[in-house]
Amino acid sequence: MVQGSKNAALPIMAAALLHNGCTILHGCPKIADVFVMEQILQKLGVTTHWEGHSLFLDCHQVCGCSISSSETEKMRASVLLAGSLLGREKCVCMGYPGGCVIGRRPIDLHLEVFARMGADIQEDGDCLRVTADRLQGIRHRFPKVSVGATENAVLAAVGGEGWTILENTAREPEVTALCSFLKKMGVRIEDNGRGTLCILGGCILSDVEYVIPPDRIVAGTLLLAGAAVRGKITLFKAPVQQLDSLLTLYQKMGGQYLVSGGTLETDSRGVRNALPLTETGVYPGFPTDMQPLLMAVCCTLQGESRIREKVFENRFRVAKPLKEMGAKIRIRGAYAKIQGPAVLKGCPVEAMDLRAGAALVIAALCAAGETIIESCEYIERGYETLYQDINLLGGRIRKENDSIDETETTGIPAKNKKEITG
Ligand code: EPZ
């Protein structure tokens, strides 16, 4: 069964701060990034506990609005606490967000909308301080589509006065999930489905229970793992309607699939055709988060595949370890050319970010012999049961822990390596 969405759970956890009450999130993924967000919320005074995959958040005792840079640098999504603390306390003092080094990842689009709502922004060294006597409802058109900036603007607007109208917003399913969570909490939000969101500030909020939707990137990862090894897999609770761009590519490479209810059955025995050109883009385009995964599969296809990365400026990092395994990849600016099929050979490789790590798991399943993936804690930032799922599907993955400091509460174990036999 496909886990709950990391990129929906994180903004929704931040959004819980907007209400001085209780939030219950069902189907919450037990992954390192969620544990990091939980720890940050606890330091702000939120009482949390788990019952299975249900996360309980009690925000009655939230005090202060400061978050240390040692916390924020652990993940990009920490930036979303700026919008929720601004919406709740009209102030936030925090370090800059960290996260996967897939690009510069500035936050200018976030700060621009805060400033336009009337906030005062002070940046000194690694500390960002945003304060406001009051937040005005505004009409704002984003100059560039940004998931995080859209989410932060929505969160701040909840604490604003009057209507905030956001145009050229991100339309990723995770943004939609955040809005549906906030509507359940009592916020009036109108979404025209074409990139305009209207949020009414100052609504009366109430306790809320919400089910985190399944993770489309995890579903895509498993589908592409099946494609790489020409297997047949069945995904339960797959968000099929969010996978159109991937399924179109999957059919082009020769895959076949069947949808029945929330179950997606794939048959990759016919997968062989290279993909002449795939471009990443904002939703509903092909997601940049699946690009490294697709690159790994392209190594097994017959002919030359090309990928153009249009969202992040440094997201071809997985090409280096893939080439160490024998892949034939050439990077020219925003374009990657992959010649296949390549004979991949297992060897020690390094995961450099979350989705690159998952791509190496896929490549390792197609490689002869054993592959050792160093720094697999990157993978555990976003995948709860990837290793178990791959073993269930017939792969062989074993985790060899150098050392895990049991006292670590962030859920990110010490340096680990993962051994996979293709
Ligand atoms: C979110 O990151 C996701 N993370 C990313 O997933 C995902 O790749 C990305 O959206 C794109 O879909 C979470 O939701 C936690 P953006 P985010 O703002 O919000 C530029 C994963 O693997 N930009 O939509 O940081 C930016 O540099 C992660 O799960 C600015 O220029 O992405 C990028 O080129 C990786 N200024 C583009 O916009 C800003 O102020 C899109 O970034 C903000 C962004």
Describe this structure in words.
The protein has helices spanning 6-15, 32-43, 69-72, 80-89, 108-116, 147-158, 173-185, 216-228, 244-252, 291-298, 319-324, 354-366, 386-392, and strands spanning 22-26, 47-51, 54-58, 66-67, 91-95, 120-124, 127-131, 139-141, 163-167, 188-191, 196-200, 208-211, 232-236, 256-260, 263-267, 278-279, 303-308, 328-332, 335-340, 348-350, 370-374, 396-401, 416-421. The chain has 13 helices and 23 strands. Helix 1 (6-15) packs parallel to helix 4 (80-89), helix 5 (108-116) packs parallel to helix 6 (147-158) and helix 6 (147-158) runs parallel beside helix 7 (173-185). The model is unreliable at 402-415 (pLDDT under 50). The chain has two domains: 6-211, UDP-n-acetylglucosamine1-carboxyvinyl-transferase, Chain (Alpha-beta prism); 216-421, UDP-n-acetylglucosamine1-carboxyvinyl-transferase, Chain. The protein is α+β, with helices and mostly antiparallel strands and 422 residues long. The strands form six sheets. It has a four-stranded mixed sheet with strand order 2-3-1-12. The chain is 30% helix and 25% strand.
Gross morphology: globular
How far apart lie the N and C ends?
23 Å
Give the averaged pLDDT, no decimals. 92
| Secondary structure tally, helices | 13
The quaternary state of the protein chains shown equals: single chain
CATH architecture assignment name of the largest domain:
Alpha-beta prism
Low-confidence stretches: 402-415
Q: Could you tell me the strand content as a percent range?
A: 25-35%
